[in-house]
Amino acid sequence: MAAVRTEGETVLKVLILGGTTEATALARRLAGHDRIDAAVSLAGRTKNPVLPPLPTRIGGFGGVEGLAAHLAAEGVQAVIDATHPFADQISANAAVACARSGVPLRLLTRAPWAAGPSDRWIGVPDMAAAAEALRDLGEGVFLTIGRQEVAAFEAVPDKRYLIRAVDPPEPMPVLPRATLILDRGPFTVEAETALMREHRIDVVVSKNSGGGATDAKLEAARRLGLPVVMVERPAGDGVEALHGVDAAVAWLESMA
Ligand code: NAP
Questions:
Q1: Ligand 1 pocket check: which of 16, 17, 24, 83 to mutate, most ligand atoms within 8 Å of Cβ?
Q2: What domains lie within the chain, and their CATH numbers?
Q3: What CA–CA distances, in Å, run from 128 to 10, 138, 219?
């Protein structure tokens, strides 16, 4: 139910940079909040995004300048950067724009995944290094990295690729033996195991996104004894992080 506010009552104007399950969960918690007036921003990458239950704007701001102008125009008093750990450009822009505008900013992020004793992970710094790492590994490759960086694997075209993403890569990479599956998590360990068996997967490529929506592939790889080429996260911008929606709500309420 929407909050009822008396005339003249002030509320904290909040911008959530979204595109993640965490951002949507935070939006659910703030919908109808009587002291916090939050809105969400999405990049517009996904064709049919899961829309949060708050006013939502879609599309880039136009770099640091555009974001700073948006903060001023909307009277934003606090920003939560709940974008994906690999969305490093928008996070860098938010760090600069908020510092310049004097608007407090926190990162809402998930802990990275950590390898267990029976895992065979090969850590790499970026997608080009992930492609190179495949040269010495098996033929059947499961690319679970989203759709934006698949072209990096054109450097190693002689593998049999299974590409899974929410929307198709545009353009499709030039890979002679590639199969595309369009699907959105969460996935179960059983379904992931069956998929890897069906496609005779020898190695999984993943970003170290963290979180519970897509970690079933790691357990499936563990059970099947498959190596995982794990792309580690980009370095952050020194913005203080909050872990979990409760912490984000508490931080906002402390200012409201
Ligand atoms: P990115 O490389 O960090 O950002 C590229 C540009 O997209 C930004 O400079 C900004 O454009 C715009 N942008 C990104 N996030 C935005 C947001 N929430 N609201 C408004 N504009 C935004 O981002 P990306 O990696 O392409 O990710 C795009 C979106 O998908 C993010 O919202 C992220 O949370 C989500 N996502 C990303 C991944 C991933 O692996 N990268 C995975 C799942 C979800 P302007 O400079 O014009 O403002």
A1: 83
A2: 12-110+235-255 (3.40.50.11190), 121-231 (3.40.50)
A3: 49, 17, 25
